Amino acid sequence: MAKKIEKYLPVDYSDSFSIEVTENHLSPKDIILKVFAHNPAWLRMLYAIRACLVKPFGIETKAIESEELIIEEDKQEAIMRKDDKHLLFYVDILITPLETGKQMIEVTTLVKYHNWVGKAYFFCIKPFHRVIVPLVLKKALC
Fold first, then answer.
1. Band of residue 73 on the pLDDT scale cut at 50, 70, 90
2. Record's InterPro entries (predicted)?
3. ω into residue 10 within 30 of 0, thus cis?
4. Cis-peptide into 97, omega within 30 deg
5. E-assigned strands of 1-142?
6. For the chain, how many helices (H) and strands (E)?
């Protein structure tokens, strides 16, 4: 079965992380909202540092209002799209029921650069992204 997010390929960067959880009855949209609302102090501090560093480049740093950015959803998958002048990114949540009664929750990120600023910005945050996404997914759902 093809994931809906695949129709937004090709992109400049993509990754995917998954976690097995006890069935939680959350919709994919609910999971996106929960993940983006999960802001512990250490993450807020990283966002504040990022905001200071990228302000001279005109990169948007306000909090993401993810509900209004959901562009597709059904009971198994939801896609969020955020576009600014430097880059475009998608976040996809796919829920796959497992025979064990658990669920596999997969989060996929796609990024397309609009210009060199978007490429440089994402180059700098990519190492953090790779650590933060699986960590926040686990903390938000477990």
1. very high
2. DUF2867
3. yes
4. no
5. 13-22, 70-73, 77-83, 87-97, 102-113
6. 3, 5
